[in-house]
Here is the input.
Amino acid sequence: MSKIKSTFENLKKSGRKALMPYLTMGFPHLDSAFELVPALVEGGADMIELGVPFSDPLADGATIQAAGQRALDNGMTLALCLEQAAALRAYGVDIPLVLMGYYNPVLQMGIDEFARRATAAAVDGVIVPDLPPEEGDELHLALRAHEIDLIFLLSPASDATRIKLVTARTSGFQYLVSLLGVTGARDRLPDDLNAFVARVRAQTALPLAVGFGISTPGQAAQVAQIADGIIVGSALLKTIGMTAGSTQTARCSARTAARDFVAGLRAGIDALV
Here is the structure.
């Protein structure tokens, strides 16, 4: 059983839902993950998405694009992301880590080499937003050989045939994009989100995690009523960016802000238990 699957099962037994914040590696500073990832764990994260910055993102809204560009300017690369993930493990971070990034850097590194390095870094899952499942066999086989989950995305536009295909090729959990469009905080959740989650739930036993557009404890609590996991990225990065600076005081403030933001989401979700 993968670490992701066992985490979802343990949470389910205790009647809780998974909180999965997204953090762009290398933002706001090249080594910020060593301060921010432990802060997210302290705040109550059950899993963490480690975003690999890319120059030409397709699914990212303005906030994550800006964070990604700053990370690239700081010198972040896929190889360095994996090195930092390994270091986080050495520092004692033991919750599931899911690498989220685009396919071009993976191809440039080499699929087998990427799988080897991801294993060495103790990465538990990989999300590649621009990789269609129909074209993902090579990466799927390489990761499966190392017991790393490959997670594909479903959008509200997915029909029954598409849902069946994607869920059959996904492991760990099924990522549900809550809306048509790119990432970014929204004032309200889509009206058809409940129906979308129900359509997917009817076709798979995989845990369902919803991302895109969730930004407040209230919204996280709403999603927790229908899904097994809640993914929050842009709102967290905005919070970190508001306190970002190069001084030690500013870096401590960013760490505290990240921890408190996640703790607020956690409290909103757990109020349902």
Q: What stands out?
A: The radius of gyration is 17 Å. The longest helix spans residues 248-270. Residues 181-186 have pLDDT under 50 and may be disordered. The chain has one domain: 3-150+217-266.
